Amino acid sequence: MATLDEISEEKQKLSERLARLDADRARVAQQLEEIEIAERVLSRFGMAQPAERRRRGRPSAPEPTPAEPPSRSAKPASTLSLSDATIKAVAAHGGGATAADVMNYLTRELGMSVRPNHLGIALQRHRRAGRLENRDSRWYLPHSADSSMQPAMTG
């Protein structure tokens, strides 16, 4: 019987602690909301905002120290637009490229992170503009662009 009483006491202590934590969380959330409101008000009146804003529930990533060498896999962010990069990726695949080939090229060669639906939109926009052709689920440069690219590449 003593064990059952100890368990119920421990359960009571934990539930009280949980209630205190819930109250603390609600209080901190209210304070954060008030700070965000004050930030918005200050920004409307021309006051400078803090350099870094963190989102609720997400800790900021630790900044790399200058002593750390950059990893070999890290590539500099590409300055190409998705539109130009898509054309470059299709041109790199002479025998035509699937959308997955284009995605892999953008990721590996250009260091771009592209959502599949955004890539599809870019490919279709190029197709409608006549800059790309889609044959047998593969993307090609149009024949006129292929022939104009050949002399430039050999010269």
What order do the helices and strands come in, and which of them pair?
Blueprint: H1 2-44, H2 82-92, H3 99-108, H4 116-129, E1 133-135, E2 138-140, H5 143-154
Antiparallel strand pairs: 1-2
Q: CATH homologous superfamily of the largest domain?
A: Winged helix-like DNA-binding domain superfamily/Winged helix DNA-binding domain
Q: How many beta-strand segments? A: 2
Q: Any idea how many domains?
A: 2
What is the makeup of the main sheet?
A: 2 strands, antiparallel
How much helicity do the residues have? 55-70%
Indicate the CATH architecture of the largest domain: Orthogonal Bundle
Query: How are the strands of the biggest sheet laid out side by side?
Result: 1-2
Helix-strand sequence: HHHHEEH
Helical segment tally? 5
- Rg from Cα: 28 Å
Describe the structure.
The chain has helices at about 1-45, 80-90, 100-110, 115-130, 145-155; strands at about 135, 140. Mean pLDDT is about 80; it is low at about 150-155. About 60% of the residues lie in helices and about 5% in strands. A two-stranded antiparallel ribbon has the order 1-2. The chain folds into two domains: about 1-50; about 80-155, Arc Repressor Mutant, subunit A. A hairpin with a 2-residue loop joins strand 1 and strand 2 (about 140). It is mainly α. The protein is elongated, with a radius of gyration of 28 Å.
